[in-house]
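Example 9 (inverse folding). The structure is encoded as follows.
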């Protein structure tokens, strides 16, 4: 029987990054559903590692005075990707998985604009993956984890906007 005392004891032992509804909900996930979530989160983690490396490398090789501010943004983005990797790794561990040490493919170029396009595409891809992960987590009742991923999406969207601006891309909104 699951008592309030047992809940409080268990809650005190759980990572501080995780919320209360997960401490209850994680028991109710089927093994298949848990594995699908873990596989997806490990894929996300591989891409967070790759994004961090790619941003650092691109910041190092971007050339020209017009890219001074962009270089600073790239380094800020790398730091954000590191923070995302820590959050995702913690979620993987909490759900009973082992965070991967594998890194997804990184892209580079000798062309400044192409590097920024590569970074922008990586952000678009990350947003799409994370939106899928939010659906998986919510369908498993892990609303607190889903919120953590939502917070990551907000930062990834900011990165995409920064890169779109650097590339001179303007979004056109339809008429309301």
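The amino acid assigned to each position is listed next.
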């Amino acid at each position: 029987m699951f008592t309030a005392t047992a809940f409080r004891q268990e809650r005190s032992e759980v990572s501080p990054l995780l919320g209360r509804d997960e401490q209850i909900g994680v028991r109710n996930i089927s093994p298949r559903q848990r594995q699908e979530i873990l596989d997806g989160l490990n894929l996300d983690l591989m891409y967070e590692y790759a994004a961090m490396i790619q941003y650092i490398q691109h910041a190092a090789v971007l050339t020209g005075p017009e890219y001074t501010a962009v270089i600073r943004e790239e380094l800020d983005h790398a730091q954000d990707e590191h923070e995302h990797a820590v959050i995702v790794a913690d979620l993987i561990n909490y759900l009973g998985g082992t965070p991967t040490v594998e890194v997804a493919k990184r892209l580079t170029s000798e062309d400044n604009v192409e590097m920024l396009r590569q970074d922008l595409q990586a952000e678009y891809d990350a947003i799409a993956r994370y939106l899928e992960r939010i659906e998986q987590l919510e369908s498993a009742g892990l609303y607190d984890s889903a919120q953590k991923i939502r917070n990551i999406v907000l930062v990834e969207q900011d990165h995409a906007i920064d890169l779109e601006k650097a590339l001179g891309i303007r979004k056109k909104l339809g008429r309301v």
